[in-house]
Every structure is written in structure tokens, then in C-alpha cells.
Amino acid sequence: MTEDDGSMKFAPADAAPRRATAMDVARAAGVSRSAVSRAFSQTAYLDTDKRDHIRRIAAEMGYRPNALAAGLNRTRSNLVGIVAGDVGNLYDAQLLSRLVSGLTAAGKWPVVLDGSVGADRLVATDIFAYPLDAMIVRGGSVDPVMVDTCAKLHIPLVFLGCVVDAPAVDSIVCRNAEGMARIADLLLNRGRRRFAFLGGPAQWASQQQRLQGLCDALAQAGLQLIATESADFSHQGGAKVARRLLQDHDLDALVCANDAMAIGALGVARHDLGLNVPADLSITGFDDVDMASWPCFDLTTACNPVEETVAGVIELLEARLATPSAPSRRIQIDAHLVRRGTH
Amino acid sequence: MTEDDGSMKFAPADAAPRRATAMDVARAAGVSRSAVSRAFSQTAYLDTDKRDHIRRIAAEMGYRPNALAAGLNRTRSNLVGIVAGDVGNLYDAQLLSRLVSGLTAAGKWPVVLDGSVGADRLVATDIFAYPLDAMIVRGGSVDPVMVDTCAKLHIPLVFLGCVVDAPAVDSIVCRNAEGMARIADLLLNRGRRRFAFLGGPAQWASQQQRLQGLCDALAQAGLQLIATESADFSHQGGAKVARRLLQDHDLDALVCANDAMAIGALGVARHDLGLNVPADLSITGFDDVDMASWPCFDLTTACNPVEETVAGVIELLEARLATPSAPSRRIQIDAHLVRRGTH
DNA sequence: CTGAAAGCGCTTACAG
DNA sequence: CTGAAAGCGCTTACAG
């Protein structure tokens, strides 16, 4: 009964309205489809007046060249996958956030994937149906199935947190052992002798390196760890295991594999066990997340610098895209000591 | 000099190796391109043996249908933009993380954008060149330019944190005023009378509603706020402004607009000013981030439930995609009281 | 300087 | 049941 009836046959109410295409703009502007395409190209020749005219009409119609269609003709999609780490982990959350900003600034669009589902399931999803320019994986251990899948699809990989030896796979890692040795030396110089290590999950390469760095530094001083236990890198897990360690052993230094667990341990030591940190006991972290500097924690830790890491990822990415066949690279980042109030 | 010389003319070392296409698989399997396409379609007819044969060869070659090319023929790209909030903010970080998981589970791939650059700049980027199925915006206030841009491109919008009245734009918000009234009632019942409000940036709709809810509840008790100040929703900002408020006024209740600021205020009150919380002073937050439940904080707050919010976003999204022309919807989420140790 | 045409990799009516 | 062809929206040699 309305005036729309005629057209409704062709455009039912529930159809998604179509986005304007170059053809639509060409018709509206009275030019060819090619001219519209050229109006949005940096390199193509087109009369300035004509270009302005086309762009004005396009703006009115809300037209933008469809990147998916354009991508078919190009070699790049500008889409980059990020397999996020455990975002409950504060360091991983900060890293992800900065990575998103860094990639955006580099002209790439980050498609964020939930790494907690595991590589097997990830590989089975249709994210690999998209011609990603690269995949960035944050994780503590290598996923061979991920490496294989990306290799077959010619998707360059950047691993963030562990080293992978495969063609077109680059890595960026922290010098964990050296960072931990700095912490150990600080504590040894302060006179600490009874050390325990509160570690993370064993499959994390960084966890093993941090433990190794600690053990080596202690060995040089003729000491060894009194106890070693593992938690899940979380605040809660750290608190729980720290309680056991502190109750079962007479310690003067509790070295934790990351800040979140150290902060959990700090709460247990001070509030539950009534220990005086740092008078009776040193507690240290690793990473230097934002929270470590809060006055209520003031945590002594080793800084795993996020900005530098992200800059490294971007550098690896751009080099790899420029030269797909280049040999694999590994960037190592120094973790410097951050002396605060808990050692 | 090597046997490869002949082919190198056509494939220079630095060209990105090409991904296998349906044509490549067709040749290898001795079938038509159409057959390959059908082998990967749920609905198309294809002899079972032939399908198995094609899929086996495809697996060997690492072939997957290119989603970008397929997307040209479909109405959906399965790409969804997320304009992330301030990820330094713990609540926003949790929300983003859960949103990524929720969208992935719903078969959508989240492209994460850095909201801190501002809508004007975002709209100018070429992310809108991609035919996004939808855009999810986390933010405290409306960006008209974002709404206009999405409308022209027929990209449905979901606002998360403020209500927008425009066609094909849905919203999901917390019942901020009611949540804050619950906190106020709790404190009034406990006998508090001298209230101050530590708010967030004025342009955030949620901030205004939280303030309003507090004022109304106080008015009903014949009271009004002694002081109101604003910070930036951060821990550090909250600490700084809380110090001023507590030094300048004789308060028995400091109501904060979010948890991060409340935790900052808690540190200042207890450690710097030597106040006894909750004996002398109540401090409350809003959101109930993970950290609020840590024993060292044990913050009384109102829970702004992340899971429920994410479920609501997904529901709005799916309904909108199913019926693009449906009237705009608004979902409201209840913020329930979480009584802990700081009131 | 600009239009018509071919091609990017896929899907899907259309014939057979 | 399956192949050849048209079309999705774009870019870019190729002619003019």
C-alpha cells in the first residue's frame, strides 16, 4: 500500500543494504569505473578536476574502495593475526595493547585470536582462510602445528617469548637468564642466602631460563635453591604457593618468575604471615608491569620492556614482508634491574 | 648455476611465495575448479569419493579457500571491528579480552582498533575500507562522526557504555545510577554521613549516571555531597585526587567512580595518611575488576558484569545481522553490590 | 589523460 | 553429479 511496494520486491526489508561500489560512483559522476578507481590511487594518472569531482561524489555516497576486493589484486591484505597470551596475565595484557597500537601505526590491522584455546583448535578455525600478511604468536612454547600451517600458507610467523628455528619464522625474546642473574646479584649483595624460586608453568621457555639464571648466579656464590615450586603466573596462584613455601622453609629471599605472582606473594607474606618485607625477607618479580610501581607494592623486579619488544616485532615484521626469503632472525631484549622497596 | 635457474626468472627470490589456489588444487586433482570449490562447501553436491580425494590433495598442498575472495560473493566478511577502550583501565582490558573470546566463539574475527587515537582519526584510516560485518565501540560518549561513517557504509554499530539513538545502532549499558544507589544505601545504613565523590572524566555518560545515582540516594536521606572531584579513571590519578580530597575534607565515605581509582585511594588513605579503612572511612569502587577481590584490597564495589555484557553484545550483534532493518535496541545490565572489607 | 578489458580467487546458478 | 561461465568489486596493463 505504500509507495515503496514496487521496489520492495527487489530489496526485501531484511536484506542488508548494499555498500556503494565504484560502479555506483561512476554512474553518479558520469565517468568510467576505471576513473573512480584511479581517483583513489596514489600513482594512477587522472585529471585533477576529475579526481576532485569523483572524490566529492564518493564522499557524499560514503564510498570507499573495498579492501577485500582490492586485496585480491595485491600481494598484501594488511591483516595480521595476533595469538594473544593469557590476558589475565597483566604483562600479556599490556603487551597486547601496545602491539595493537604498534601494528595500527605500521598500517596493519590486528585480528586478535584467543590463544587459550590452543594451537590445534586455532589451526582448525577458518582464520587461516584469510590471507594474513603475518601471524604474531605470544606464547611460552612452540606449537609445531602452527608453524606447519603457516609455512604451508606462506604466512610469516613472529614468535614472542620463545625461539623457533624454522624458515620465515622470526623470534623475539627477553634475556631472561641475564635479567634473573641481576636480581640474584642484588639479593646476594644485600646478604640474602636462603633462596626459594616461585616459578611458572614448566613448558614456558622463559620460566626455565629465569630459573636457570637464578641457579647459575647462586652457584657462583656457592649456594643453591632451598626450594622450588610452580604456580600458574597468576596473582592468586602465586599467593597460594608462596604461602606454602614461606611456611615450610626458613627463607630470606623469595624470587618469583613474574610480577603477578610476586605481588600475590607479597600480600601473603605481609598480611597473612606478618613478615616484614624487606627487613626479614626479599620478594622480587619479573616484567615490571605497571602495577609493580604502585606505592602499595613498590616491587623490586626486572623490566621486560614492552615498548622495545613491540618495536622489535614491528621491525621483524617489516623486514620479513620486504624480503620473504630472508634467513630467520632472533632479537634479544635486555631486562634491566628495577630496584624498589621489596629487596 | 643451480637447477633452479630456469624457474627463478619467473619467481624472484624476494617475491612472497604464492598461496595455493583452487585452480592449483584442481590441476593436481584432475578435476575442475568448481569441483574444488564444492569440496569445501557444506551445501553443494559432490560425489563423496571425489570430495575426499580433493580434500586430501588440498590438505597436502595446504590449500584453504581464500576468505577474502569468497567474501566478495557473500554478504558477510565475518570481520568485526572493536574500538577498544582505555586498556590501561583494568575493566576495559577484561572486557576486551572476553569480547575477543565471545566473538571468536560466535564465528566472528575481531579486528582490534586503538580507541585512544580518537574517532576522527579512526574514521580516516582505511579500516573502513574493509566490509566489516559490524563495529563494536567501547566508550563513554558518542562519536557522531563514527555513527555517520558507519551509517553510510551500512556497518551496524554496537555501543558499549553509552546509549546512541540512531538507526541500526544498538547499545548496551550498565544501570549505573541504580548500582551507585546500592552502594550509597549500604554506606548510609552503616552510618556514614560525610560523603565525597571521586569521579571520572565528565564526558563519560557512565560517570555522570554514577554521580547522579549517588546524589539522589543522598538527597533521599537529606544529605548532599561534601565534595566532588574528577580524575582519569586510573589508579595513579585516583590516588592523587584522593589525597587532596582526604586532606581538605573531613570525610567518612569516599565513593569512587571505578575500582582502579578506589584502589589508588585506598593506598593513599591507609599507607600515606594512616587512616583506618573501614573503621574511620569507607572507600568503594565500581566495576568489580579481578583485582578488587585480592585480599590486599578486598574492595567493596558494584559489579559491572563482564560476561553478561559480552553475551549481550553478541546477542545484539546476531539479531542485527539477522534483521538489519530492525529497530534499535538497548540492553541494560544490573550492577549488583559486592560487599567486601572497605565499607 | 581515460575507457574497455582482463584478471585477482572464489561461488553459484545454468546447462548438460 | 559436474563443468563452463558469469559475477562479486577492485586494479592495472593495454589501447586509444
Automatic annotation (TrEMBL), chains A, B:
- State one Pfam family annotation: Peripla_BP_3
A single MF term (Gene Ontology): transcription cis-regulatory region binding
Report the protein name in the record.
Answer: DNA-binding transcriptional regulator, LacI/PurR family
Where does the source fall among the domains of life?
Bacteria
Gene3D superfamilies referenced in this protein's UniProt entry, alphabetically: 3.40.50.2300, lambda repressor-like DNA-binding domains
| Keyword list, A-Z | DNA-binding, Repressor, Transcription, Transcription regulation
Concerning InterPro entries, the annotation shows: HTH_LacI, LacI/GalR-like_sensor, Lambda_DNA-bd_dom_sf, Peripla_BP_I
Q: Which organism is it from?
A: Paracoccus homiensis
For this protein, the record's PROSITE patterns field holds: HTH_LACI_2
| Domain HTH lacI-type, chain residue ranges per copy | 20-74
